[in-house]
Design brief:
Layout lengths: L1 H16 L4 H22 L2
């Protein structure tokens, strides 16, 4: 369980460091949200 938490923190740190601005981080989060929404819509019967 601890390894999963450590990996999640590292992944989030890398994702945030990839953004140069808060605006860029917002766009990244929006992009992920859109992908999740699209996947959910595709999974509906």
């Amino acid at each position: 369980m601890r390894n999963i938490i450590v990996l999640a923190v590292v992944a989030v740190s890398l994702a945030v460091s990839a953004c140069n601005t808060v605006s860029g981080a917002g766009k990244d989060v929006e992009s992920v949200g859109g992908a999740v929404t699209d996947t959910a819509e595709d999974a509906k019967p």
